[in-house]
Design a protein that fits this description.
2 copies of one chain form a homodimer. Chain A is mostly helical. Chain A is built from 21 helices and 3 strands. In chain A, strands 1-3-2 form a 3-stranded mixed β-sheet.
């Protein structure tokens, strides 16, 4: 490479790293907001986050950066890896320059305020308190979608989907989502007709938080989560925050009378954290050191939570320890009964507590509502009724209050529209990776039942994590599994796990 | 005011508020670094803080801001308050523009790394591990002092003093500090000759952290610290961080076998926090909403810690509660014995654990070393020996290891040279304010012994806090007490409190 090109590339990397540092700093402000900030601090915090978002946006839109990117884009002297960095940086910047600075600032500030109002409105089951700010957020996101634009033949909602899942469009998602929906509906109905019922009540006894925390730490350490480069806190809505591969934090919540909440919530977030800790630290702050998409991210958390964490093999390893922590509750409960209980399928109201079979239907409800919102077919005031109707249609259950319905999720309060479908994609990818992984490692239950997670983590590190955003979502899927997203693996996985447990077929 | 001037002023305020938000965001990163950050996160954190510091500096030095300030400086259409905002903003910026961006970035990054190394080197009592980074910091601060400059007839160290105590110079401080030193030496010697000795061992029993925390919360709430706009955490070296008057956080440390550490540490930090919470929120992010100086800040913490917190009146109110929390340790200890014990005077090695009489001597050691360092008379490798010699000279005690000597304080690891003298100024001002306060409120022990802190807090709010940086340190001292800094009040206070306890005179 010529010195001139090398110098240009070096300058590009340094510039985008500075921008990433501003985002990471803002990320810490957000983490603190949800874990440690005193309540009266919120106005100032929203303002500070807005200022940082504005600064990052300003630097991102600097014409000098645009020129650097134009000069280096598909430059023949660059390596494939370097070209990928330029390509992805250009993709990000092209999106950014379309967004007016005022809109970015207003969105960040509104979301900061909306989040706090949402917390109260959910607590008080008062949708009307949240509605005005939600309406403002939808309006701002409609402006954002228009500003970003979309492919010919597409819809404005595509612009939002693409934020979280590069390349995703309604046209591409609709068939995948309807296939997944049909599979879930079939499975839910078949299971509903089974006479077998797990003893769920064993999970509803008194489970003190301290012991839940103890088993949580035990499991995430065994998974390979590095606590010298991370930490575990409590938050109302669990999440993972990364400020660098060496500082990746997870949160969980302890439900005293519902053990699975923290148990699988903690494993889930640790799955996300392993992805972030597995990103190449030498590329931190660049697209090569960044996660590929939220669908890929969710495939990591769901893989650990479900494929691994709800397997019989996993508990044949950990169950004796769990029994020791809760001898009164579990001392006389068999492994099979425990395993069946944590795999209960039961249509319910709350997404984050939903089982694997009905989970995707919760996503479908939100996907269809968001599509309608951004097509202008419905407005914010219609949401509670629309939500309840769809829950009835797909899951056969109806919320008795908005706190258990349209107010349950944090996402809209943060302006994150287009985010939900990535949960469903994560479920599908997780099954696809498991299938691919087993071609190399053999049946992973043989590893899991011995607590040998290191080869599994290593496989994920090498096949997925270490690539950052070097490949597109489709390209990486092909590298990992030989094909692009294929929802059949998830359908097969559901059958394999649940047909035996419930003694049904579909 | 003309529309044009009003618009210029509005724009100025908006600009400096954005800069303040960047500083506050960086402040949160620093708070997190010392309270919650996982150890491996430090490199990224240092980098992120350096980027934010660089950004704030860049915005601060923007020539457009300089033009705004020049146009508005002493503008006849502005109110006195507005003129003060312009004057102080200009003062800050004039300092900033003298600092090259590279130096600012290097200082922040070096300090971030040095801090972590210092933690380990103190733990391992290994000065040589810290020395290279300390040397680099001194070198960078020498560059900073040269870049900022100082008044004719002054010395480079003045430039650093002025960072923390606007207007302070060696020439102004030397007589005050030598008077205070002589008073402390006299008092220490007189007390050393007394036959009275407090029963200090009652404070060295087993005091579990949970109960220490309980009494800490009890006291700071009664002082009026708003926990809806603040929080209390643990940190190796207690400090107060403010990100807005509505988000002011304190930290403390619990020493299981030394009760005074958390007890007075918590009161001390809460005193700082009351100042920050008392700043006018409508001026947040501007000099009118900023604390005046570190000397003034310390006067608030020391006032609450010592004038109030170590008084007999304070414990005649709180001691029964403390006895209930620690019945085995204190149940049969009289109030007088407890009060005498917490006012023990004993030359010792550690500044933060020092009593009121000898405390200033610890500051004198550091002040004289810093003066010598920045005069170029000594170098970093000379510090351990020099430190130990001065401790012997002034306090009659000598550290057996550097962890108890030159490595004990966090300040140098953060590049904070010129900071220590403000502790001494705080002690002097605290006594001066008490004298002034009592002219209005009468003997405050009558309020304290009834737990009536509200009038005291209100007096401080109205006489000191609400003014922010509207007046200079000398001007505000005159408004508050009728005169500029006068060390006689502190000398009188020492006599009043300790001559009776130890039955001596000096």
């Amino acid at each position: 490479m010529s010195d001139k090109t090398a110098e240009k590339y070096r300058k590009l990397v340094s510039t985008i790293r500075d921008i990433a540092d501003i985002h990471q700093a803002a990320g810490l402000l957000g983490w603190d907001q949800q874990t440690h900030m005193p309540p009266k601090g919120n106005d100032a915090r929203s303002r500070q986050m807005a200022v940082l978002a504005g600064l990052a946006h300003e630097k991102h839109c600097d014409p000098a950066l645009g020129e650097m990117l134009d000069e280096l884009y598909e430059h023949p002297e660059l390596t494939d890896e370097q070209r990928a960095l330029v390509r992805e940086t250009k993709r990000d910047r092209d999106r950014s320059v379309k967004l007016p600075l005022d809109l970015v600032k207003e969105l960040t500030e509104t979301a900061g305020r909306a989040h706090v109002v949402w917390v109260d409105s959910r607590k008080n089951d008062d949708f009307s308190a949240f509605a005005p700010l939600l309406g403002k957020l939808v309006d701002l996101k409609r402006q954002e979608a228009r500003a970003i634009g979309f492919e010919e033949g597409g819809v404005p909602y595509d612009a939002l989907l693409d934020t979280y899942e590069p390349g995703a469009t309604v046209q591409k998602l609709d068939p995948v989502i309807s296939y997944a929906r049909d599979q879930s509906v079939m499975a839910t109905q078949a299971i509903g007709g089974s006479s077998r019922r797990p003893k769920v009540e064993i999970l509803k006894k008194n489970y003190p938080a301290a012991q839940q925390e103890a088993i949580g730490y035990r499991i995430i350490k065994q998974m390979g989560y590095d606590l010298q480069a991370g930490r575990l806190d409590e938050a109302a809505h669990p999440f993972t925050s990364s400020f660098d591969p060496c500082d990746v934090r997870i949160t969980t919540r302890y439900s005293i009378n519902w053990l699975p909440s923290s148990l699988f919530g903690t494993i889930h977030e640790a799955g996300h954290a392993l992805y972030e800790q597995g990103l190449p630290v030498e590329h931190a702050g660049t697209p090569l050191g960044d996660s590929l998409s939220l669908g890929y991210h969710e495939s990591q958390s769901r893989f650990w939570e479900n494929q691994v964490g709800r397997s019989r093999a996993f508990w044949s390893y950990f169950y004796p320890e769990l029994q020791k922590l809760f001898p009164e509750n579990l001392g006389s409960v068999s492994l099979d009964d425990f395993h069946f209980a944590i795999n209960t399928v039961e249509p319910s109201l709350i997404r984050v507590e939903a089982d694997e079979v009905t989970y995707n239907l919760h996503v479908v409800v939100r996907y269809e509502i968001e599509k309608a919102l951004f097509a202008g077919d419905v407005e914010v005031e219609d949401l509670p009724a629309l939500w309840n109707q769809k829950m009835k249609d797909y899951l056969g259950v109806e919320p008795q209050c908005n706190a258990d319905g349209v107010l349950q999720d944090i996402h809209w309060s943060l302006g994150s529209f287009g985010y939900f479908p990535t949960y469903l994609l994560g479920n599908l990818y997780a099954a696809q990776w498991t299938h691919a992984m087993q071609k190399e490692l053999g049946d992973i239950k043989n590893l899991i039942e011995n607590g040998e997670f290191a080869p599994i983590k290593k496989w994920l590190n090498e096949n997925i994590h270490r690539h950052g955003r070097r490949y597109t979502t489709d390209e990486l899927a092909v590298r990992v599994s030989g094909e692009t997203l294929n929802p059949v693996y998830f359908a097969d996985y559901l059958k394999e796990r649940f047909q035996e447990l419930y003694d049904v077929t579909w």
